[in-house]
Specification:
GO biological process, one term: mRNA export from nucleus
Number of strands: 0
Radius of gyration: 70 Å
Protein name: THO complex subunit 7
Structural class: mainly alpha
Family: Belongs to the THOC7 family.
Order of helices and strands: HHHHH
Pfam families: THOC7 (PF05615)
Coiled coil: 91-165
Length: 215
């Protein structure tokens, strides 16, 4: 089906139509009328031809306008496609930036938490003495403890010595008491210048006991 048949079919269906179709229909009717009319006057033929040229110019103008509109629509579609692609790209970049910002925020929170924990530990460390001072204090305490142990041993030795001396003294006193009890029947006016061997032995033992006690 050629273009002429399409135009005729359209004319039969829509009549003259509207807009560009109407211009084409009028141009086609005028052309067919001009072709089928036998003009006797060249002026009338020229007027009919000029009228067809006017319609032809209008159709050409409408065609160029339609082409321009079509081209503009294509350009707008391309522009919209580019804008859509750019928007999609910006959305993707924005999502990436949001994800990156979330990661940075997470890291910042972790750093802040670690910094707070560090500050707490630093305060605790500041409250305690340095390790060198603690080690020195520990050595001093060890030396002091060793000195106390030595002092305790010396005191225990002295106590043992005093216990022995006291035991000897108590033994001597018991012996002296027994001796005095045995000699209780003797005359009270006995002179102290006369001592027997037993008395001399007791006195000697007593002096030996008193001498260590004085030390």
């Amino acid at each position: 089906m050629n273009d002429e048949e399409v135009i005729w079919r359209k004319l039969l269906i829509d009549g003259d139509g509207i807009g560009d179709d109407r211009r084409l229909n009028i141009l086609l009717k005028t052309y067919l009328k001009w072709c089928n009319t036998k003009y006797t006057d060249p002026v009338e033929s020229q007027k009919a031809m000029e009228k067809m040229l006017v319609h032809l110019n209008l159709c050409e103008h409408a065609m160029k306008k339609s082409q321009a509109v079509s081209r503009m629509n294509v350009e707008e579609m391309l522009m919209y496609d580019n804008m859509s692609s750019e928007i999609d790209h910006n959305i993707t970049n924005t999502k990436t930036e949001i994800d990156r910002a979330k990661e940075e925020l997470k890291k910042a929170k972790t750093i802040r938490r670690n910094r707070m924990e560090y500050d707490v530990l630093a305060k605790l460390i500041i409250q305690h003495p340095p390790r060198t001072d603690t080690a020195k204090r520990l050595d001093d305490l060890k030396d002091e403890l060793q000195a106390l142990k030595m002092t305790k041993n010396e005191i225990n030795q002295k106590l043992d010595k005093r216990r022995k001396q006291l035991h000897v003294l108590m033994s001597a006193l018991n012996d002296l008491t027994d001796s005095l009890d045995d000699n209780g029947s003797m005359s009270e006016d006995m002179s102290y210048e006369t001592f027997d061997d037993e008395d001399l032995d007791i006195l000697t033992r007593k002096d030996d006991v008193e001498e260590p006690m004085s030390d």
